[in-house]
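Example 401, ligand flavin-adenine dinucleotide.
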Amino acid sequence: MRGRARSVSVSVVGGGIGGLTAALSLLRAGFDVHVYEQAAARHEVGAGVQISPNASRVLHGLGLAEDLARTGVRPLAWHQRRWDDGRTLLRTPLAEPLEARFGFPHYQMHRADLLSALASSLPSARLHLGHQLVGLIDRETRVEARFANGVTADVDVLVGADGIHSRVRRILFGPERPRFTGCAAYRGLVPAERLRDLGLDVTAEIWMGPGGHFVRYYVSGGRLVNFVAVVEQDDWTRESWTDRGELADALAAFEGWHAQVRAILGAVDETFIWALFDRTPLERWSAGRVTLLGDACHAMLPFMAQGAAQAIEDAATLTACLADAEADVAEALRRYERLRAARTARIQGLSTDNKRRFHLPDGPLQRERDAAMSAGSTDFSFDAVAWIYQHDATTAGEEPA
Ligand SMILES: Cc1cc2nc3c(=O)[nH]c(=O)nc-3n(C[C@H](O)[C@H](O)[C@H](O)COP(=O)(O)OP(=O)(O)OC[C@H]3O[C@@H](n4cnc5c(N)ncnc54)[C@H](O)[C@@H]3O)c2cc1C
């Protein structure tokens, strides 16, 4: 449903999942919104992305239910397995039981499918490709954004949804010092047809082993299998989604792992390597008429599969706050930050903890973890994740105490 036309104008910098969701949500609420994306065209290299019920709730509300059902895959279960013999450590049914509990589906998607569903829902005149933000000036009553191509935009509110290396964040709060976690992830996609002999079921598998873990699930309506193979290594310098990795290195890192893991890696044509960095939650997200959203303010390790979901939640809550307090936008942005910061910081922390839990060397701690999983006591039980999955970000609601 579209809201009444509002007088507030908004520039969203960054046309990733967070920025496009924010633009669509603000537009539907009646705001005059434009998105500025630095890329001149869409060349999507990202692989899989998980859209849990807290995020699909928002996307369904924006009219994307059919797109998600067509291109997303609804996994039947989380299946945690042991790295060498493939033994099941835990299998948590998803699909119907999950939808009955949380009201919305869990989807596993190709980033390109999600981005194209979001972008095609926006009128093309609202999305400006080839616009790299290089500066901004907050004039108290308005904000001016400056782009490398000479264009300027003069608006009431500016939202920095410009990802891990956010220029908007740097302008507001100075440089950041992310810490290398000692982990890198090989990522890639394999045509499902090529893996037919393995008989992979429609689950999300997480194989846990000493110093690494391996995740695989279907995307793109089941046509592709996405994998993320996380290894520990000593050093790294660059944090990029687009660096290419060597398949031989990935196979060497998973020497001795179960044949199924090695068969998936062996079937890959190309892989990207992504060095994983950790961040301390930011103290502030907003200053005056400018705020941040998504990875720009709370980039997290992928071990809770919440990076995209939290950006989508941000978009919905930002819209609700601006709609509630249209006249005082600076206060609306502060309220948005107060509503979001503790929740995203908690998920950032849990994502970091999972690195240690997933990578335990074989020994007493690993046996303790596996026994707890076999007994059904795990961070992946519905009760444990309920505070994440049942959250409704579309209403501003009460501020946390
Ligand atoms: C190429 C890519 C691949 C990814 N692959 C995965 C993956 O496989 N698995 C996973 O879990 N997560 C992945 N992510 C991250 C995940 O998508 C994010 O955690 C989540 O979607 C939150 O996104 P965001 O919108 O905050 O940031 P992003 O998705 O990073 O989007 C930020 C956008 O801002 C644009 N931008 C940056 N600087 C400027 C500027 N100065 N001016 C204008 N535009 C600018 C960028 O080009 C980008 O489109 C990937 C991100 C990217 C960019």
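Summary: The chain has a mean pLDDT of 91.
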